[in-house]
Protein: VOC family protein
Amino acid sequence: MNLNQVTIPSLNVEKSVAFYKNLGLNLIVFTHSKYARFACPQGDATFSIHEVEILPKGPGVTVYFEEASLDEYVKKLQKKGLVFNQLPTDMPWLWREAHINDPDGNRIILYFAGKNRKDPPWKLK
Structure:
């Protein structure tokens, strides 16, 4: 099995499209203002946005995008005007993470985990 795509809700798809293009995703489908799909710059996964009338309640969606040059990438995005909730920080689970919210409040985590992504020291045997 392979992950095809993740779809998140948005009150304003066009506004979200601008955000995710700025984040570095490649827009591949945008036929109307209710749905858009992106290809990640690396790998085969896609990411899509669909319009909703009401956002889900509770903590919402969290999406992780891995970037090997995390610190430099965050600086590049800051120069474009993106504002982060957390700048790159080493986490106890051996990942380095930066946090930002998209226009709908979905939590986006840019991170680098290296070998610890799939092979942390506490991995099940």
Observations:
- The chain has a mean pLDDT of 95.
- The first strand starts at residue 5 and ends at 10.
